[in-house]
Design a protein that fits this description.
14% of the residues lie in helices and 38% in strands. The strands form four sheets. Strands 6, 9, 10, 11, 12 and 13 form a six-stranded antiparallel beta sheet that branches. It has a three-stranded antiparallel beta sheet with strand order 1-2-5. The chain is elongated.
Length: 206
Amino acid sequence: PITVLMPIDDLAEVDYSLNSLPAVFRAFIDLDLKGIVYPAGNYTRPPYVAAPFTIPDQSDSMLYLAFSEYFFQTSSFAYYTAGAFNITIAEEVKSEKLICFLIFFFLQTCSYFNISTEIFGSIIPEVAKYSVTPYPVMLKLMAAEIPIISLEQDSFTIEIQGSMAVFAVLPDSTTQLLFTMNITANTSIALNIFDQKLMGSLCLNR
């Protein structure tokens, strides 16, 4: 079979080659596509096994799309391999850029916010002792393992194990490590179609 690759972004590509010849029936056509996501330019097969699955027998819509757990697993592997889960946050951060690491820290905002030693000092007394004068803070987040994605009945769960290093940015632009911490987050995401848009709702399990 011919391999058909399409870039998703700068980090990943998807192989949507046919697994088999299309099955043509009187009322519909069934296309079985691979759906393997690779790091861009790296086509080493991911360490997962694709399990067969079935689509419910329905006929009241024109088009049905089904994505397997394998598709999401290879996506997680591709982005982890490409380093997408290693993120540095410095000073003023826009809310849209927080989406990739909300699961790490559960930081949610509607606009801009400034992170500083003053914020962490109100939670961790040792930080307040170290920094009497508020300094900007730089955060480095890293995934320790490939995020685990599991499909559920009406949603899917993501489990991420990672670490965070918090640095104070000093006036001479050097940084001073304040503390590090390990983080494990388990989150459920439910997808729904609303007003012709695919919407997701996030629920923190632990």
